[in-house]
Amino acid sequence: MKLAGAALGRAILKPTQALAVGGAGMTRTIPKSGESVPAVGIGSSRTFDVTGEADRQSVKEVMRVFVDLGGRVVDTSPMYGHAESVIGEVADQLGLGGRLFLATKVWTSGREDGIAQATESMRRMRTKKLDLIQVHNLLDVDTHLKWLTEWKEAGRVRYVGVTHYQQSSHSALEKYVASKHIDFIQLNYSISEREAEKSLLPAAMSSRTAVIVNRPFAASGLFQRVHGQPLPTWASEFDANSWAQFFLKYVLAHPAVTCVIPATRDPKHAADNMGAGLGKLPDETMRRRMVEFVKSL
Q1: In the chain, which end has fewer C-beta atoms inside a 10 angstrom radius, N or C?
Q2: Cα diameter, the chain
């Protein structure tokens, strides 16, 4: 998440510059349906959990920039404090009804509590239908997947999935990927957290499961790592104009990745992140070079 200290090492790409790089941003296909979504989305953990008017206005401007630059996928959770309510309020104010791909999570135990939580999430986000509900951190996952499947069949949710943010749970995530009963997984993956490349991402490709990536900046650790370091000149070979784009393009270059969801409350950072969906992506040779460069810092 990019809070105050996370701007370390950032060279900001302005919205007008982002649009000039290559037009519309890249999209990816959800394998189970064939639907296309923008490859760069936005997360809301911590950054959208706000109550003050100034912070709410910042979120509103972030969302305006995000949508103006082609963004649609907005990921949230009931455990992110006020985030769901703020998203619903801002989407209403900006007239974004029907334009966003709204993804939230269920994070409780028991069928009835899960249904009640998801119903409340829809109320907070001011929608009668959610695009994606994910079982957060695999909590009571089998119970929730049963009623979520019923909701999907009834048209209350379009896709179902499971999530975790720790690589220690990748084997558990892979179990549900292999079942082929889910549409999405969400996992941690970055140039410094590459465990998912060994088995989980290949499994997702094999089972035709869409992948949402969280922690693409390793919880801001990558910005701290490159603080004071100039962006290598060869980053221009894959159209990276900032460290944020360097890190995001590494993630997006993996063929299993459907969408990456960096979080921010800074409109300039939002525009910078969206620039990662423009232009070229690094090939495998370049990705190895990127890894070795980051390791050397």
Answers
A1: C
A2: 55
The answer to whether 75 touches 212, Cβ cutoff 8 Å, is yes
Distance CA 147, CA 114 (A): 9
Strands 73-75 and 36-38, how do they pair?
A: unpaired
How far apart are the C-alpha atoms of 15 and 65, rounded to whole Å? 7
Give CA–CA dist 172/38, Å, rounded: 27
For 204, residues 6+ apart whose C-beta sits below 8 A from its C-beta are: 177, 185, 210, 211, 256
H-type alpha helices, the chain: 15-22, 53-68, 83-93, 111-124, 141-154, 170-179, 200-207, 221-225, 243-252, 267-274, 284-296
Quote the pLDDT of residue 4: 33
How many folded domains does the chain comprise? 1
- Report pLDDT for 11: 42
- pLDDT for residue 24: 54
> Residue 167: what pLDDT?
85
* Token pair belonging to 223: 């910005």
Separation of alpha carbons 104 and 124, rounded Å: 11
Of 277, 268, 284, 261, the C-alpha closest to 132 is 261
Encode pLDDT of 80-110 as tens digits. 999 999 999 999 999 998 899 999 999 999 9
User: Could you give the CA distance from residue 223 to residue 12 in angstroms, rounded to a whole number?
Assistant: 13
Q: How many helices (H) and strands (E) does the chain have?
A: 11, 9
Residues of the chain with confidence (pLDDT) below 70: 1-24
Strands 27-29 and 36-38: antiparallel
CATH code where residue 21 lies: 3.20.20.100
Which of 78, 103, 69, 109 is closest to 269 using CA atoms? 69
Altogether, the residues listed in the chain come to a count of: 297
The answer to whether 7 and 223 are in contact (CB under 8 A) is: yes
- Which pLDDT does position 246 carry in this prediction? 98
pLDDT of residue 180: 85
Q: Using alpha carbons, list the distances in angstroms from residue 174 to 20, 27, 71, 129, 135.
A: 39, 25, 28, 28, 14
